[in-house]
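Entry 14: structure prediction run for nitric oxide dioxygenase. Input pasted below.
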Amino acid sequence: MKKTPRSQLITSFELEPVDGQPVADYQPGQYLAIWLKPEGFEYQEIRQYSLTRKADGKGYRIAVKREEGGQVSSWLHNHASEGDVVYLAAPAGDFFLNVKPQTPVTLLSGGVGQTPMLAMLDALAKSGHQGQVNWFHAAENGDVHAFADEVKALGAALPAFTSHVWYRTPTEADRQAGRFDSEGLMDLAAVADNIRDPQMQYYLCGPVAFMQFAAKQLVELGINKDNIHYECFGPHKVL
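Run finished. Output tokens:
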């Protein structure tokens, strides 16, 4: 296990098999389950976390948000260390990227909902995707915004890439560093010219309230509901 802080709230974990054998393949957007029962846990706990990069057959990378009162996320953030062994279930999930090389794609996320989008963006960049790719992300501010540099690097590898980041409550340091594009909640009307292609596929992930907010805007902009694919972080709801 390799552990890398990505923001004040999000840390990534790189996991490799102890036997050195190849790991199970997966599609960008899927998740895996992690099984834990460290000292102090009364019961074995199972949590699902999205995979955050394209499959390489060698290992997995997940990113975990530290949740207040979250037993597993707190242990991973505060106690897990390099060399620890955890148990995993094979990757799964029916939310994953499925587009042709020329298909335009928009990836929308709120907070830690960017994790499956990172795997999708990584896959698009490494496959030489030729269609337009939009990365639209909403975060509280730069203190909790993870993977910004990685997104920038992946976007630079794509021939047609647009990024727009919204901070709800940016800090003065965010303003001085130019870490965001717009202040406030995600407003898709501001980027409407980038999302009008009738062939475009939209992938959304984040808290339920964010998902409902973003999906409503897409529909109001005339987007075909059949082109909107989503996964909620939290109780599942139909958007």
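Notes: Residues 27 and 58 are 15 Å apart (CA to CA). Will compare against the previous run tomorrow.
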